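I would like you to sit down with the pair of lines that follows and say whether tokens and residues agree.
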Amino acid sequence: MLFVIMQIISFWLLAVPEPVAFYPLNARYKAAEKENRQPKGTLGDVGITNGPFNEPGGAYMFYGTDNSYIEFPNRGGLDTRFSITLMCWVHPGGQYGSIV
């Protein structure tokens, strides 16, 4: 039984591709990609705040204005052929508006 479980885990690990980019968006990395695979992003008028599980400096706060944004340049490295997955932690609090 253990052998079968190990085979399933091994297959799953081989089937999961490396991410094209991973931007933690926290105080440590700011708008930089964690593995330096892609160019740094641009921080508009945003502030650093607590992240998931109340982690200090673990997230950015947007102020709900046009100049409050984070932008990532795409010089071809963020293009994917068939699909893309975007993940974010959102703690709404304030004005109504679009998130992504």
User: Anything to note?
Assistant: The mean pLDDT is 83. Strands lie at 42-43, 46-49, 59-62, 70-71. Helices lie at 2-15.
